[in-house]
Write a structure and sequence with these properties.
Blueprint: E1 9-17, E2 22-24, H1 25-31, H2 36-43, E3 47-49, H3 57-72, E4 79-85, H4 96-104, E5 111-115, H5 121-134, E6 140-148, E7 163-172, E8 180-182
Parallel strand pairs: 4-5, 4-6
Antiparallel strand pairs: 1-7, 1-8, 2-3, 6-7
Amino acid sequence: MAPKQEQRSAIIGFGMSIPGRRITTEEIARQWNTDPQAIRDGIGVKEKSVPDAGQDTFTLAFEAGQQAIETAKIKSSQISAVFVGSESHPYAVKPTSGMVAAALECDPFCHCADLEFACKAGTAGMQIVDCFVRAGQVQYGLAIGSDTAQSRPGDALEYTAAAGAAAFVIGSASDRNALCRIDKTLSFTTDTPDFWRANG
């Protein structure tokens, strides 16, 4: 008997959430007695989004996920995999993905996990959901990258580490609402030193 052919996958819906508040690189530079023009010329960034009171990685992920489900034209109960990638999950142990799945009223028999992988945790989530769909484990899955990125005061990242979320519903390429077929994905991983965990 011939092996079962894997299902093709596609992006079915997408969404995003970006806080409306902004802080300019000029404001940050002034606090550190740094030339704002040199900062703008050096990094090419004029401003960044910052979360408002009550906004965090979860709320941004929820809003982006809700929008993605709406553009996919499906019911949230049809989502049975939710993966959230972030560098700034609000809880140490409680999963953001479980909170998002519950708030969106996804299928309670839902594969959920939080991912951390520096700047590629969201795309790692897309690859995992893609594999679930291709394997026929789920009809639809939701992959979200969400952050309220922080940096050390005075660090170069203080000018660019911003807040926002992007979400993608992934399903079968034969779905009538398929927007973009996923043919292949690729990862390249190295053991690169990054930030140390803060004391406490």
